[in-house]
């Protein structure tokens, strides 16, 4: 994944997550801070994070000052460190060493009537060290060694076993165990080699001394150890053999979101010409992209701007014999806010990539746009479209002819070929097997067709082909191209269809991660098909997606990107999809999950479109808040967003609160609703059903002495959103199992509650289902692994469980990286995505545009978010079925 500029990695390995979960679930009472090192593997590097804290998770930035002069080494070489927001970053050489050490002398201090010198050492290991290698570090050291296929932990002081050393083990389930090393310095503790347990050792040497004129009674040594497995210690040749091909690499997004553009592949480059960048059906001089770009397909990252002709949309671009040909298109002559003044053009031009110059060719007999073009032999064919003559689109007229230009002798001009069966626009045209295919489109009556018509130049006649399968949306602004000798077509539902070898039927071979219209399907350079730009969920997008065609099947990869986030929140933002926008509200500026101090809470809010662009700030919340719940209630065209509850400041304390804030549809402000959650619960599940907002479960937290520290209400509440004077009221229904921090979703008139924490902070293993009509409860099978802070999404009759943290038989919490699906008809769970394509922690999930949206604001880059859009059925469809 490409990182935005000025974004630094931050810890994301399992031991840091374990400590985060321990603090969140159990709380902590910090009395001292120690030097810790943790490591993070990225695809192209490994970064070590250094910080001062009691548990192995970064604390507040104020503590970084104490380790400004720490030294870091690997294999005897000193390593440079740079200051990040909450950690120091130590970038490792390649190949990465097995271990990195840190050391810091905190000098002489007095505490509890004693005067002592304080020495800190820290180590992070990427792999075990052979047991026969001597310990090279002086002072107190803890290391993981391997011998005879087994691993063990050794504590040493000045290279000798530190028998009887006090050791504290931070386990991933939140437990902190007190241990001692044996006579050989060995510590018996599980989970260290797997990165699930971190260790802190203490050793007072009992030797008095003096430092910088200050006397001390002894030196107290503290040493820490974390292990981050997963580094690649294979030989170089093995790494090379297993390295990904270019076909596995992501594409850099198009510089601007764009649809209805000209696209072509030529000479190892993908070309994108102009197009529409604004809201659908709204046009002015500022909504036409005035740029012409190309992407180097050999590295998939380098976009280059080229000289652009007129800004156009509904334009065709084709490649032939080392040149590009631009045909027709539409231009908006009106300024923003003025009545539409839309005109098609008849212009045709040739672009020479070597000289980067345009040359005009004979124009078409009539202006046209939303047509398509293809090259067959040495002839350029143009089919369909309409002519816009100024004013609104209602003044345009359809063109019923098809044209041909001899590219070997363009001066001979255009000729008309046989009339197609019916006038169409917003169609696809492709050359295949010596014939011209006309696929889908819109008719003069405004209908969408999936018809396929075939022109044979040898006979000069049109004939009918097999109808494109699927819903009507498949025929609206599709795209088609012959890739590897087979004709492919894609329409609005994201299915890639392939024409059978007989030419009599279509077969579905793959699902795009991002379904789109007004896009381009083009041949790649790796035996793949490229899906470029287009309109998804009502907005133009920047995405380039690869569909690898192999063995008669197609497979798609997820579309993932990262973006900087405005504001200072690092975690615990409310997350939701309102209309076609992703909204983030509130949050906490510290990565420490227990940092509930009022100064850490923020009112920041932002939103972003699912188009690969950056987030934009919107109006802040009326007050700072974290861990609220965002819901979208069907009101108006896009729906209305409400932020429910959360954790905020109430006088002198920070506690769960029941406020409700309403988001202005334009994002220009939040208003405080009169409705509120009466018991001030948080960590609940919110469901929208038939205009009502329902509240299930949750917990009430109030640290004041006169209040119970945590209660778990079971009363189900309902609020008729939008009705004057309405507020949350009891429904008379109660949860059969108290729970908080669970995943919930509405499907088929029922609300499903999955996972979470119950009384005593114990995981809840049952799945409860509430029927809104009958008010009855039932239970269904639970997924294979328990989750907390996860999301449940209903999509096309199926429930999808993703994000959050999970635990297996070992009871260790770690980031949940899979997505599971529940089919109510089958009554069973299955894993549909084994490893999600983003690496951040605290992953959230929602539905958008018929796909799953994954989001993490706790990525490896401070202040940045990772996002991905995936098909809930990412496996190849290549079952040979004809439709």
UniProtKB/TrEMBL annotation:
Superkingdom: Bacteria
Keyword annotations of the record: Isomerase, Kelch repeat, Repeat, Signal
Stored SMART domains: Kelch
Region of interest called Disordered, as start-end residue ranges on this chain: 226-252
The enzyme's E.C. designation: 5.1.3.24
GO molecular function terms attached to this record: isomerase activity
UniProt xrefs under Gene3D superfamilies: Kelch-type beta propeller
Top EC class for this record: isomerase
One Pfam match: Kelch_1
Keyword Repeat: yes
Signal peptide: 1-32
Name of the protein this chain belongs to: N-acetylneuraminate epimerase
């Amino acid at each position: 994944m490409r990182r935005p500029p000025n974004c630094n990695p931050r810890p994301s390995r399992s031991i840091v997550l374990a400590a985060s979960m321990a603090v969140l679930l159990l709380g902590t009472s910090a009395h001292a801070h120690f030097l810790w090192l943790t490591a993070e593997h990225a695809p192209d590097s490994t970064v070590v994070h250094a910080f001062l804290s009691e548990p192995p998770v970064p604390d507040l930035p104020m503590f970084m000052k104490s380790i400004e002069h720490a030294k870091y080494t690997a294999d005897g070489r000193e390593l440079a460190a740079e200051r990040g927001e909450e950690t120091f970053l130590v970038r490792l050489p390649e190949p990465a060493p097995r271990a990195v050490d840190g050391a810091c002398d905190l000098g002489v201090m007095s505490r509890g009537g004693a005067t002592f010198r304080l020495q800190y050492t820290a180590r992070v290991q990427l792999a075990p060290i052979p047991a026969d290698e001597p310990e090279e570090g002086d002072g107190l050291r803890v290391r993981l060694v391997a011998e005879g296929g087994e691993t063990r932990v050794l504590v040493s002081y000045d290279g000798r076993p530190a028998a009887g050393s006090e050791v504290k083990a931070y386990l991933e389930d939140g437990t902190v165990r007190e241990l001692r090393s044996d006579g050989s310095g060995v510590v018996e503790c599980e989970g260290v080699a797997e990165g699930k347990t971190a260790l802190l050792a203490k050793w007072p040497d009992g030797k008095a001394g003096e430092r910088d004129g200050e006397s001390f009674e002894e030196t107290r040594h503290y040493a820490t150890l974390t292990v981050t497995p997963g580094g690649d210690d294979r030989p170089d040749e093995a790494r090379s053999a297993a390295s990904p091909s270019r076909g596995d690499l992501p594409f850099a997004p198009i510089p601007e979101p764009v649809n209805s553009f000209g696209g072509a592949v030529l000479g190892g480059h993908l070309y994108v010409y102009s197009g529409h960048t604004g809201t659908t059906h709204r046009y002015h001089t500022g909504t036409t992209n005035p740029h012409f770009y190309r992407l180097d397909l050999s590295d998939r990252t380098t976009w280059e701007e080229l000289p652009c002709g007129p800004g156009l949309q509904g334009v065709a671009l084709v490649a032939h014999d080392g040149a590009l040909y631009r045909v027709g298109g539409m231009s908006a002559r009106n300024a923003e806010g003025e009545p539409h003044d839309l005109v098609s053009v008849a212009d045709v031009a040739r672009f020479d990539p070597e000289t980067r110059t345009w040359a005009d060719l004979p124009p078409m007999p009539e202006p046209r746009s939303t047509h398509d073009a293809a090259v067959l032999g040495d002839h350029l064919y143009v089919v369909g479209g309409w002519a816009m003559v100024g004013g609104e689109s209602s003044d345009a007229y359809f063109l019923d002819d098809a044209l041909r230009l001899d590219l070997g002798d363009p001066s001979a001009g255009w000729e008309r070929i046989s009339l197609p069966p019916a006038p169409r626009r917003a169609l696809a045209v492709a050359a295949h097997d010596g014939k011209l295919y006309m696929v889908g489109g819109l008719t003069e009556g405004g209908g969408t067709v999936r018809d396929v018509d075939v022109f044979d130049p040898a006979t000069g006649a049109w004939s009918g082909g097999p109808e494109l399968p699927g819903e009507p949306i498949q025929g609206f602004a599709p795209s088609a191209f012959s890739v590897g000798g087979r004709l492919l077509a894609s329409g609005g539902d994201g299915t890639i269809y392939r024409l059978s070898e007989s030419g009599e039927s279509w077969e579905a071979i793959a699902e795009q991660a991002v379904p789109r219209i007004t896009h381009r399907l083009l041949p790649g350079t790796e035996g793949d098909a490229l899906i470029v730009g287009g309109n998804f969920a009502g907005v133009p997008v920047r995405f380039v997606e690869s569909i690898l065609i192999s063995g008669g099947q197609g497979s798609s990869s997820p579309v993932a990107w990262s973006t900087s986030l405005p504001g200072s929140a690092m975690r615990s933002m409310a997350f939701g999809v309102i209309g076609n926008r992703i909204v983030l509200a509130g949050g906490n500026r510290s990565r420490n999950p227990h940092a509930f101090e009022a100064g850490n809470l923020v009112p920041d809010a932002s939103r972003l479109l699912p188009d690969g662009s950056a987030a934009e700030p919107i109006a802040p919340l009326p007050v700072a808040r974290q861990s609220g719940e965002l819901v979208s209630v069907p009101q108006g065209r896009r729906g209305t967003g409400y932020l429910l509850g959360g954790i905020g400041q109430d006088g002198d304390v920070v506690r769960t609160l029941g406020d409700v804030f309403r988001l202005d549809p334009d994002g220009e402000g939040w208003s405080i609703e009169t409705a509120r959650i009466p018991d001030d619960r948080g960590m609940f599940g919110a469901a929208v059903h038939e205009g009502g907002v329902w509240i299930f479960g949750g917990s009430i937290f109030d640290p004041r002495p006169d209040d119970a520290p945590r209660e778990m209400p079971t009363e189900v509440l309902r609020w008729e959103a939008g009705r004057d004077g309405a507020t949350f009221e009891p429904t008379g229904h109660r949860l059969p199992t108290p729970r908080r921090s669970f995943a919930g979703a509405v499907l088929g008139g029922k609300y499903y509650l999955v996972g979470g924490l119950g009384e005593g902070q114990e995981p809840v293993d049952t799945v409860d289902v509430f029927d809104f009509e009958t008010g009855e409860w039932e239970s269904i099978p639970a997924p294979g692994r328990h989750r907390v802070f996860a999301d449940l999404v209903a999509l096309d009759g199926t429930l999808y469980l993703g994000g959050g943290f999970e635990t297996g038989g070992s009871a260790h919490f770690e980031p949940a990286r899979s997505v599971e699906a529940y089919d109510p008809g089958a009554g069973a769970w299955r894993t549909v995505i084994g490893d999600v394509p983003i690496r951040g922690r605290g992953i959230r999930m929602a539905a958008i545009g018929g796909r799953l949206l994954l989001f993490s604001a706790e990525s490896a880059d401070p202040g940045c978010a990772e996002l991905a859009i995936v098909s809930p059925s990412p496996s190849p469809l290549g079952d040979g079925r004809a439709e």
